[in-house]
Amino acid sequence: MVMEKELRLMKGNEAVAEAAIRAGVDGYFGYPITPQTEIIEYLMEANPSKTTGMVVLQAESEIAAINMVYGGAACGKKVMTSSSSPGISLKQEGITYIAGAELPCLIVNVVRGGPGLGTIQPAQSDYFQATKGGGHGDYHLIVLAPASVQEMADFVDLSFELAFKYRNPVMMLSDGAIGQMMEKVYLSPQKERSKIVPDWATTGKPATRERNIITSLDLDPDRQEMFNRKLVAKYNEIREKEVRFEEFQCEDAEYLLVAYGTSARVCQKSVQIAREQGIKVGLLRPITLFPFPTKRISNLAAKVKGMLSVEMSAGQMVEDVLLSVNGKVPVYHFGRMGGIVTTPEEVVESLKSKLIGG
Amino acid sequence: MVEFSGIKEIIKPENLVYKKTNIMTENTLSYCPGCGHGTAHRIIAEIIGEEGLQSEAIGVSPVGCSVFMYNYIDIDWQEAAHGRAPAVATAIKRLLPGKFVFTYQGDGDLAAIGTAETIHACNRGENILIIFINNGIYGMTGGQMAPTTLPGMKSSTSPYGRDVKTMGFPLKITDIVATLPGSYYVTRQSVHTAANVKKTKKAIRKAVQYQKLNKGTCLVEIVSNCPSGWKMTPVQSNKWMEENMFPYYPLGDLKTPEELPTK
């Protein structure tokens, strides 16, 4: 029997929280920070410990919260945390240990402008941190970029599916606009919490197996390098199999906008405005930022005259677009910073001045 | 070599009075001769064996000399980032409340970088056991000043002795933990004599019982030695510990609950 999805009007942050309960998440560990505090507030109010048995805990710091995620993930449980940019910086220690120990988990970053304490308004300035590692050592997170409240809900389940498939931490890279705005959202029916215990999980050693050890430490350089190679192979497999993106009016496009999240929403309107002016523009929206849709952008570089990477940052994703295009056509960046959301008209003006000339 | 006559007749199962607990693995301990870590490990392993906890126990090892503790005791282990073991253990116990969860941490780990995690896990009354090895020095990195280094004590980062005016005072974190409503049983012990080993074992066994009863956080501090870091022989280090460490960190219970109900 297919159960009906429930229609609700929610903030993106609330949708993540509700979707986590419905996805059968075992534990959430967080610390308040604007603009994502509704996630822990919603969970505390919903009190899923009484219904699904989900643990919700307010930690003493983001550092403690991510290390709780480490502990819970190492037990084979579906665990998550959420924060916003300054808090995500604090979590980087735990995130690299989680990547090094190959543990599955979900980290939600509702990005605000920086650097430092910055602003509480939306930004996309954590792209480098999210996609290039963030903490020390060679590692990658799988990074999903929602562009709607619906996707903030849907990507909870998808994140855990990918996290457990690859034993790799997943980051949902949202921003203060999507986290705070209200939209209609179709919520999946309640799932039961999984009873499956992965064979690597530390749950107490029965006589039937060897002890399980969760660690990221190996002092032997040969073994450590072998482990690094194993990670590289895993990331390459992820690059091969898990690229997700969406195209909007790319069929006849002469110019391509590349944008994710809130910027992609803005750019849909920009495409419409440009086309009304007779400029054939398309939009490619990466849904996975790692793995990045390199091949598709490379293919499109053979068809278009130029690309504009639109991000609410000083220009971060544009570096991945440049690498994908590899000099075939001109690539520029346009974006507002400091918590200012780009307008569709600004994008069209930038496209015209940078790529078309006047 | 003295040849014992009839030695083979003596080595028989019925004559066995003491043996290595099978909870300890065959791996060679990485500790310096005379270090208290090995003894503390053995006590924990013995209790896990005697209490039938091998399938229930999940240990959290720290950063420091005992980082490889997971190589020595045959149970499931998680290796935590420096200072974060109480946060890691918090989640394990919350998600697997029926299991026996403990951390094993040195003074730098527990009382410097992990102070917040220690205090808040204890303040929440997490049902975990924290075993705290206090030897007043960073052993693994080669003998630097620890939060528990005594006033005037020399280390590689206090080469003229700890000057409390510029380097602060030794932190009696166990005393702080004992004041928190969430902590249930807090005690300070040592493992440098047979009598003290017995007392420490009794203390840890009590803590295991309290965890089964969901009583809150138990913390067992073990004041220990570091012959290499202190640049002493093992015998000298134990004497120095008695004369200098114990007056500052007196042995004994800091917080005792009512007696356990009889089974």
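qc> The longest strand of chain A covers residues 105-111.
qc> done
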